[in-house]
Amino acid sequence: MRALKKAPKKVLKKALKRTPRKTLKKKSAPRIVPPVISARLNSRIALEARADGSILAVFEGHSVALGKFSAGVMDRAESLRTGLPLTSFAAGSRNADPEIDLLVRQLARHGLLEYRLGHLRDDQDQVVIEPQVPDYWPRTPKLGAAETIVLSRFAYLRRRGNEMVLESPRAGALFRICDPMIAAAIAMLSKPQKISRLRRQDGFPGNELLALLVDCQILFRLDAASGDGLRPAEGGDNLVLWDFHDLLFHTHSTEGRQANPLGGLYPHAGVIPPPPAVRPPWPGNQIDLGEFSPAPSQANSAVAKLLHERHSTRDFDDQQPITLAELARFLDSTARIQSKWKSELDFGDDGPEIEYAARPYPSGGSAYELELYLAVANCEGLARGFYHYDADRHALVPIAARTHELDAMLTSAEFAMDAPAPPQILITIAARFGRVAWKYSSIAYALILKDVGVLIQTFYLMATDMGLGGCAIGSNNIDLFEKITGIEFHVEGPVGQFAIGRGRDPEAADGPNGPGGPH
């Protein structure tokens, strides 16, 4: 076998010079363009321009004045039909349009916009954000890669028609999920997840959506002290006390934090026949009780007389309004604290001591969680304003309410009663929810509503006895109450309302539109 000869060093150097070096270039990852948040006019809303330059938002026979604008704004506002990126008119933007910014803010203030999350060059929506409170505006707080987030225990996905929506009773908006991959990614957040880990997952929904969900409290951040993200980790003690179904029912059976139609709208008329006023009798032999009932000519007891005379009054005599002395007597007889005591909970040696305070009406578990707030429009001897009734000291404490907030509360009551004018005094019955939820599981909110019914009947009987007029009102605006009082809606909020004053016609009974029935 022949030995291989070594090449001379000079030859090797020349060969190396002639051979070009190949450098390996790293393939750069494709740049991911983040989705954009755009403001879009609600599909049910039309904009109309008037000759004087004013623009109206028109929907379902109603109109909202948005202000006066220059001639070209209507043409530029056409972009709101498909979606106008928030960055295109935000303050500080190079291409900001002040008039479009003002128009969009006005529309947002009245809850007439929705917000699209998606790519500008793609017609397909990823998510559509539907405001549930009038002044909702999308915000995207910064989320760090090391942060951990998890779904709120109040968040839920549900089918609505042919759509999937993500919502929460704590959120100022609901999210219409248009991409199934996003719904699957959100489901992963039932367990705490680090942002850095989420970014590596297929179908990562993007920082923008996560930030929007954190802003709406559908997601929340966990820190080292928060543990596993279960019930005690979310919110303060007042929120821990709420069961999911109770908070959902509270926000979805009142005004202020949901955008669904509300009130006597007869949604099933023409689809389902109206149920009968009286239940069809059960078959079988009847036991006639008529022979035991007193004859109409016989005198009934005072209580029975009040029950028969009780009726709702919607028309009040503003020439002869209720007086402060009458209001004081009414509150003293129906809501003033009569006695207070303490009792130790029988939990062994370390049972807590519980305070109680009895009032004239019954209350589940002697909780007496209800508080009274008075919006006064016309009361002789008492200035127009908003007051809290201190049931312990039997005193009214004024609360600073802005004129338009007080007007909104009184006007809403007028509309709900189908009345010709606002009530002289509107009593808002608010609940300190934790007082009941601290003791009762699953039934706390139901007990509160039963207490409201008992108190309203007490109001009716006392108003009748005093020759005053009263009317129960079926709706409350929990967002407006929060703005006036500064108390978070889940801590203390309205669960009932009652109008009181001097009736124009003491014999007038309700019509079919009233919540109190024909008597």
Biggest sheet: strands side by side, in what order? 5-1-6-7-11-10-9
Please state the average pLDDT score: 89
N- and C-termini, Cα separation: 123 Å
Domain module count: 3
CATH superfamily of the largest domain: NADH Oxidase
Task: Please state the overall shape, judged from the principal axes of the Cα atoms.
Answer: globular
Secondary structure elements and pairings:
Blueprint: H1 9-18, E1 36-41, E2 46-49, E3 54-59, E4 62-68, H2 73-76, E5 84-85, H3 98-109, E6 113-118, E7 127-131, E8 148-151, E9 156-160, E10 163-167, E11 173-177, H4 180-187, E12 193-194, H5 195-199, H6 207-215, E13 219-222, H7 237-240, H8 244-252, H9 302-309, H10 324-334, E14 339-344, E15 353-358, E16 370-376, E17 385-390, E18 395-399, H11 403-417, E19 425-432, H12 433-437, H13 444-465, E20 469-473, H14 478-485, E21 492-501
Antiparallel strand pairs: 1-5, 1-6, 2-3, 3-4, 6-7, 7-11, 8-12, 8-13, 9-10, 10-11, 14-15, 16-17, 16-19, 17-18, 19-21, 20-21
How would you characterize this protein structure?
This protein has 519 residues and is α+β, with helices and mostly antiparallel strands. It folds into three domains: 34-125, Outer Surface Protein A, domain 3 (Alpha-Beta Complex), CATH 3.90.930; 134-235, Alpha-Beta Complex (Outer Surface Protein A, domain 3); 300-501, NADH Oxidase (3-Layer(aba) Sandwich). 25% of the residues lie in helices and 22% in strands. It has a seven-stranded antiparallel sheet with strand order 5-1-6-7-11-10-9. Strands 18-17-16-19-21-20 form a six-stranded antiparallel sheet, with helices on both faces. Strand 9 (156-160) and strand 10 (163-167) form a beta hairpin. The longest helix has 22 residues, at 444-465. The protein is globular, with a radius of gyration of 32 Å. Mean pLDDT is 89; it is low at 508-519.
